[in-house]
Write a structure and sequence with these properties.
It is built from 13 helices and no strands. The protein is mainly alpha-helical and 312 residues long. The chain has one domain (40-311). It is globular.
């Protein structure tokens, strides 16, 4: 009898405790994932509020993020896992990331938050195209249909913005260039992350992007100092909230959820940014932006659907 009691008690202590831990982690995940979405949604608002040139905003965002990561990178000695061939890829990735932020931040100087954020979020479409062109990945019907819907949606947004001003159309084009640069950054990351830990990859890439942006700012003779106190506050919040809190939350969630699910979750950014812009910046919506935005988001969801099923 005692033996049977002992035998029945052991599975209880060995199996249910891990399940409880997993349940706690999942509950924490579903609480923090919306926090991550809200955090990244603030980026466009802080950028709009910054009274500084595009390159200065991008430089501060990347350099402050890299500086925050420096103590942890030194503690873990992330450079030990680097190989000589990795250095070239770090540079390419950092260059693409610097171009992404330069184009996207510039777009916010010309067009609305809703148009800019929806268009820059099309990067999963360009990742799919790049994977087909450079990584020999299959171009499925889901991706083709998703591309068609996204192109149609971009056309709707462009048509609506063209009626507002030529500057808005320029901003839309810059946002799409930002999406293309982001897709290149993600494709390089897909290659590099196979042999690198997260910090071993993002620390050198963030640092490289920041240094490249400093060089660009010096070439164009932009000043790093002399801005208002509120602008410095917004620059600090830009690095802290969307970059470190938002993206770190998504990277942490990758431990528990497939990458495709995280990619779909990031589609909450255009919705969150649009709502924040309405309440804090007084930006309204046109019917063309609504139709175009819904078409683009639907296209991205369709293009990600097959990968989500494969991840399961």
């Amino acid at each position: 009898m005692e033996d049977s009691v002992k035998w029945s008690a052991r599975p209880f202590t060995l199996k249910t405790a891990p399940n409880c831990d997993k349940l706690v982690e999942m509950n924490r995940l579903y609480l923090l994932l919306p926090v991550g979405i809200i955090a990244v949604s603030t980026a466009s608002i802080f950028i709009k509020l910054c009274d500084a040139p595009v390159l200065i905003i991008a430089t501060y965002r990347m350099m402050l993020a890299a500086l925050v990561l420096t103590p942890l990178a030194c503690y873990q000695k992330t450079w030990r896992g680097w190989e000589r061939d990795d250095l070239g890829w770090f540079f390419i990735s950092g260059l693409l990331l610097s171009l992404h932020f330069s184009f996207w931040i510039a777009s916010l100087k010309y067009t609305s938050v809703a148009s800019s954020v929806v268009l820059v979020t099309t990067h999963p479409i360009f990742v799919g195209i790049g994977g087909w062109l450079f990584l020999k990945e299959r171009l499925g019907l889901n991706l083709i249909f998703g591309i068609a819907l996204s192109v149609l949606g971009s056309g709707f947004i462009g048509y609506g913005d063209r009626s507002l001003s030529k500057e808005a159309l320029t901003g839309d084009g810059l946002a799409l260039l930002g999406a293309i640069a982001a897709s290149g950054y993600l494709l390089v990351g897909r290659k590099m992350r196979k042999g690198q830990m997260l910090l071993s990859y993002i620390f050198p890439v963030f640092s490289t992007a920041g240094l490249i942006l400093i060089l660009f700012a010096l070439i164009f003779q932009e000043s790093f100092w002399g801005y208002s106190l509120p602008t410095y506050l917004y620059l600090f919040l830009l690095a802290l909230v969307p970059q470190l809190i938002g993206h770190t939350t998504f990277n942490w969630a990758l431990k528990y959820l497939p990458a495709s699910v995280i990619a779909i979750a990031t589609l909450g950014e255009p919705i969150g940014s649009t709502l924040l812009a309405y309440f804090f910046l007084g930006e309204g919506l046109t019917i063309w932006k609504v139709i175009g935005g819904m078409s683009i988001i639907t296209g991205i969801l369709i293009s990600l659907r097959k990968k989500a099923l494969n991840d399961k």
